Amino acid sequence: MPDTKKQRNKHIFLFLRIALVSAGILWVATRIGQQQKWGDFIEYFRRINIGVLAVTLIIFTIGHIIISLRWWILLKTQSIFIGLWPAVKLYFLGWFYNNFMPSSVGGDLVRAWYVTRHTDKKFEAALSVFVDRAIGLLSTLVIAVFFYSVFLRGQAVPGQRTAEKQNGLFKFIVDHKFIFLLSAVSIAAIFCGLLINRVTRKKLINIWTKIRVFCISMLVKFKNAVVIYCKNPMAIIAVFFLTVMMQIIVITGFWLLGRNMGITVSIKYYYVFFTLAWVVGTIPVSIGGAVVVEGFLVLLFTQITGLEEPAAWAIALGQRAVWMITSLPGAIIHLTGGHLPGEQKGMHLPKDFSVDYNKTVD
Asked: N or C, which end of the chain has less CB nearby within 10 Å?
């Protein structure tokens, strides 16, 4: 029964994510159609030079290889030696899953699952994937904050709300403070009621005990892995700068693509907006950040630079197209079994693949 309920919840969550993406696509199509600017929107893509597009794809592919090198360094720090080329293939496989597979399996989980096939240090190998992602997010935020501080701080924002409107949320909370207080008291009362009841109290204690034991076990392994990383600060510094370098050259590639479309927005906005959108896109509410990343980019470009919506959507969807094209090698790697150790070639993900964390971290 618990497994059935877990599967049902997973399918519901997947359905909601797909529904969000579908609704977002319909909204964008309707929005552009209502403004009668389909011709302007398509014209931006007609301007793209094949040579410029090819350069953008090459730049982005090089960026993927740099990120694979970053992850490979993290693996070596944990004394996990799987080779740079297998790491590259696993990274491209994860990128393909992020962009194409309509499932609840993220690319990071796929990488974490398959890298454990290459080593006996399963927990450390899986942890390296999430350390890799954490460093990526941190460096992305650093780039966004740096370029914002240098170029955009104090700049007047076209269409920015007045101070009175910005205080609207605070005013709403103050005006409805009784409702918020009543909600908090109700939640506290329900929780206390569960604790008072003997049966529910026993269940809560059992749940808490299992969570505590699991967390302690994971914290011990996590602490040991972090100690190893801390003993190799140069590796972490190298990984950080590799990430910064990758993101700068990739965003520069998107700026070149935008210029080729005839969009003359300064590159400084690209460095801030793209990095922020990538961070927002990690929130798991859609498939591969679809619609979320694009919508956030359009919001930033239109509200801050005054760019027209068709041009902003062209930039956002141009990025998505580059993402999807450069992830296609991951499909080839999956079909040929290139992501597996030599003795496991030909094995693929089951149709209803899910990661068992207990097995992964043992």
From this structure: N
Mean per-residue pLDDT for 229-243? 80
Q: Are 324 and 84 in contact (CB under 8 A)?
A: no
pTM here is 0.67
Question: Is the pLDDT score of 166 beyond 70?
Answer: no
Which range of 7-11, 79-83, 234-238, 315-319 scores highest in mean pLDDT? It is 315-319
Give dist(CA 164, CA 144) in Å, integer. 27
DSSP for 89-157 reads HHHHHHHHHHHH--SS--HHHHHHHHHGGG-S-HHHHHHHHHHHHHHHHHHHHHHHHHHIIIIITT---
What b-and-e string marks burial along 197-215, b requiring 16 or more CB atoms within 10 Å of the CB?
A: eeeeeeeeeeeeeeeeeee
The Cα–Cα gap between 235 and 69 comes to: 11
Three-state DSSP state, 249: helix
CA distances from 66 to 110, 243, 269, 354 (A): 19, 8, 24, 28
Task: Report the C-alpha gap between 156 and 178 in whole angstroms.
Answer: 37
Half-sphere exposure of 267 (CA within 13 A, CB side): 11
Q: For residues 219-245, b (16+ Cβ closer than 10 Å) or e, as one string? A: eebbeebeeebeebeebbebbbebbee
With vertex at residue 112, the alpha carbon angle to CA 108 and CA 118, rounded to the nearest 5 degrees, is 140
Asked if 328 contacts 98 with a C-beta cutoff of 8 angstroms, the reply is: no
99 near 288, Cβ under 8 Å?
Answer: yes
Separation CA 110–CA 341 (nearest Å): 15
Residues near 256 by beta carbon (within 8 Å), at least 6 away in sequence: 52, 55, 56
- Which DSSP string corresponds to 11-63? HHHHHHHHHHHHHHHHHHHHHHHHTT-HHHHHHHHHT--HHHHHHHHHHHHHH
pLDDT (mean) for 334-351: 58
Amino acid at 43: E
Tokens coding 174: 């103050």
Q: Who contacts 83 (Cβ-Cβ below 8 Å, separation ≥6)?
A: none
- Take residue 258 and report the two structure tokens written for it: 């935008």
